[in-house]
Specification:
Radius of gyration: 22 Å
Number of helices: 9
Structural class: alpha/beta
Mean pLDDT: 85
Helix content: 40-55%
Strand content: 5-15%
Low-confidence stretches: 1-7, 239-247, 250-256, 261-273
Shape: globular
Number of strands: 9
Strand order of the largest sheet: 1-9-6-2-5-3-4
Order of helices and strands: HHEEHEHHEHEHEEEEHH
Length: 273
């Protein structure tokens, strides 16, 4: 028998009463994403993210169009999952800290693809929900670092949880890099920064043995080097563009103009003596 969710009907995908951690997991496993709600929010959010943050996406064709798969990106911001979701027409499922879910808008987040995870501990419930989503053929975003690494120059050390889930469910891992999402807002105002997302070819795992050692090797020797490589490439990309402009004589001309402007003596304004 399914679990009954008060107020969660076809005409009301979510309501704004507090949801417990247990209820959120049941809702995520048994009902999952609300298609009308997800489509509505995506139609509002996706154009803004793409235009305001000048999104550049490469390798989106590597995201499997059907079947279970794990998107495995580096983690810089709470907004990372939203930018990744914009890159695919599939419904993206992702973990959110339990403090966000156990609020008045927690049910809304769950129906948009989130499910809770308790930070700082091995959360068996979140792992089981992730496993159920993959067994249902879903697309899951899982951050191997386990926490946000705010320094734009650094990546964290990956944990083997993504490898373990991939081996247990035979879901391929899609190495993913994202840049530009740290410090996106100045108070409530979004900064006009450039966000880049890159997806590498999926790593098939169906022929690999399922063991803790194999999960560790999968993440550290196969997955994370790909993520690091894509991340460094994205970080270097603006420099490559500048080098190309210089080669065409455009960048050097701009540089000369800036140097001349700096050297030009400032004229004294008539009202300043």
């Amino acid at each position: 028998m399914g679990y009954s969710y008060p107020g969660d009907t076809a005409g009301n995908a979510c309501n704004f009463r507090h949801v417990t951690n247990e209820e959120a997991h049941r809702l995520a496993r048994e009902k999952g994403v609300s298609r009308p709600l997800y489509a509505f929010v995506r139609a509002l959010v996706a154009p803004f993210l793409r235009i305001w943050f000048r999104m550049h996406v490469s390798g989106a064709e590597h995201i499997p169009k059907t079947g279970a798969a794990i998107i495995a990106p580096n983690h810089k911001s709470f907004w990372d999952s939203f930018f990744i979701a914009v890159c695919t027409r599939r419904h993206l499922r992702f973990m959110a800290k339990s403090e966000l879910i156990e609020t008045r808008y927690g049910r809304l987040l769950v129906r948009l693809g989130a499910f809770p995870v308790r930070r700082g501990t091995s959360d068996a419930d979140s792992l089981e929900t992730a496993r159920v989503i993959l067994e249902q053929g879903g697309l899951l975003a899982l951050f191997p670092e386990g926490t946000r690494i705010r320094d734009p120059e650094e990546l964290g050390h990956p944990k083997r949880g993504a490898g373990r889930l991939a081996l247990e469910t035979c879901a391929p891992l899609v190495p993913t890099a994202i840049t530009g999402t740290e410090q996106l807002f100045l108070g409530p105002i979004p900064k006009p920064r450039r966000v880049q997302v890159a997806f590498a070819e999926p790593i098939a795992v169906h022929e690999l043995a399922s063991s803790p050692q194999a999960a560790g090797a999968l993440v550290e020797e196969m997955l994370w080097p790909e993520v690091e490589g894509e991340y460094r490439r994205l970080r270097a990309r603006p420099g490559v563009v500048a080098a190309g402009l210089t080669a065409l004589g455009i960048g050097s001309g701009l540089l000369v103009q800036r140097q001349r402007a700096r050297r030009r003596p400032k004229s004294r304004l008539p009202w300043r003596r």
